[in-house]
Specification:
Layout lengths: L4 E3 L2 E6 L1 H7 L8 E3 L9 H5 L3 H9 L8 H11 L12 E4 L2 E5 L10 H4 L2 H11 L5 E7 L3 H10 L5 E8 L5 H8 L6 E7 L2 H13 L1 H9 L2 E4 L6 H20 L9 E6 L4 H12 L3 E8 L4 H8 L1 E3 L20 H8 L4 H14 L1 E3 L2 H4 L5 E5 L2 H15 L5 H17 L5 E5 L7 H8 L8 H12 L5 H4 L10 E4 L3 H8 L4
Parallel strand pairs: 5-15, 6-7, 6-9, 7-8, 8-16, 10-11, 10-15, 11-14
Antiparallel strand pairs: 1-2, 1-3, 4-5, 12-13
Helix pairs in contact: 1-6, 3-4, 3-11, 4-6, 11-12, 17-18, 17-19
Amino acid sequence: MEVLYSSTRDGSMQVKASEAILKGLPDDGGLFVPDRIPALGKSLTELSGMGYREVAYEVMRLYLTDFTEEELKNCIANAYDSKFDTKEIAPLVHADGVHFLELFHGATIAFKDMALSILPHLMTAAARKNNVKKEIVILTATSGDTGKAALAGFAGVKGTKIIVFYPKDGVSPVQERQMVTQKGENTYVVGIHGNFDDAQTGVKNIFADKGLEKRMDGQGYQFSSANSINIGRLVPQIVYYVYAYTRLLREGKIAEGDKINVVVPTGNFGNILAAFYAKNMGVPIHRLICASNENKVLYDFFRTGIYDKNREFVLTSSPSMDILISSNLERLVYRIAGNDPEKNVCFMKALAGEGRYEITESMKGQLEDFYGGYASEKETADTIRSVWKEAGYVLDTHTAVADCVYRKYLEETKDGLPAVIVSTASPFKFARSVMAAIDEKYDAMTDFELVDELSGLAKITVPSAVEEIREARVIHDNICEKDEMQKMVEKFLGLA
């Protein structure tokens, strides 16, 4: 049965999966959502006998219903290949009494690789399917990881250009260097004077500019997005939650039907939303534990039902979570509002105008699957040090936030169900923060000295994603104010 996609702000418009992926965002500024969440087509026991690529096909075919079997399998095969340093793609590692789902074994050592390795293939297949002749311009804002993963995915892909905006002083040194050294004639990187929310808002405003859209059309261009707001990013993320459950099943840690808890370090809400979709497909997930850092807008939302971005923006050691406008939350709000676009529009208008909204009591009642928690900077560092000393396992700063929040959840609820903590980045990507947490004596070292020290300490080979940027030449040195983003796009596309 075909799954169609409509906007969270206009239920009358329906498009096929390939059209939603190509477009990225609906014209009304909403987000594409499926008209239903399909049930798994095979039992979890059957899926437990499959590898990652096979599970990916069984999950994604249920959402991307206008892709042929051959098209989808080709996309999967091209995405989940030797770019990943383990055949498992997403290994489940048991340490310190929990299961860490390691999503950082791809080309850029962060979880964004899991979806951005396949998105370029889905997009080019969708373009062929829809007879698109225009060049696709990928426009993306990043809080650190999406940028490099998207750049790596689209670099050299014919018929595309990619423009990435990032907060100049809001990413780690390794994250920035990964982006500014990116090769590829179709790649453009710009640091803005502002934070991630400024970059994300700027990108949305550019998408919404009809005059620019018309000028681009005249030059043979059309926009799309590689952010998690693109449904082509969200669907591949559902896969690894199904996969994680089936690995526990395969290893005999659980029996089919046993419930587990899932803990996700959360910024833009896409990763945990994918877990919510997996739960609604039939994966027996009990609680979706949403872990925030000191930018705890989601923690407050789940505790009070009020989403309020009117607060100080905090730069933390977990920069990919330094977000006050969690765009993907709109998809959840739309669902708990009864899939009512008019109700959702009211909330989003309030957010745009007053910077806050409050959901109804009946909507709050539908959030019982979620638990919100947060970790302070000190608690994050303490968790890295504690897990290293007690288990010999090194967490990055984002995974440490999740681990800390899980311990708080366990203490508060005594819920001892098996827990999967989503490990979203390699500790090498945040070596300075990780090593400083383990011991203050490392403060005086350079970033790459810290990388080598971490390698020796943890007895882990330095990932090639880090090695290759040691001596790499800076290619992109563009910097602009947050209100100059559109001018930069026009310049890159020859529209200025």
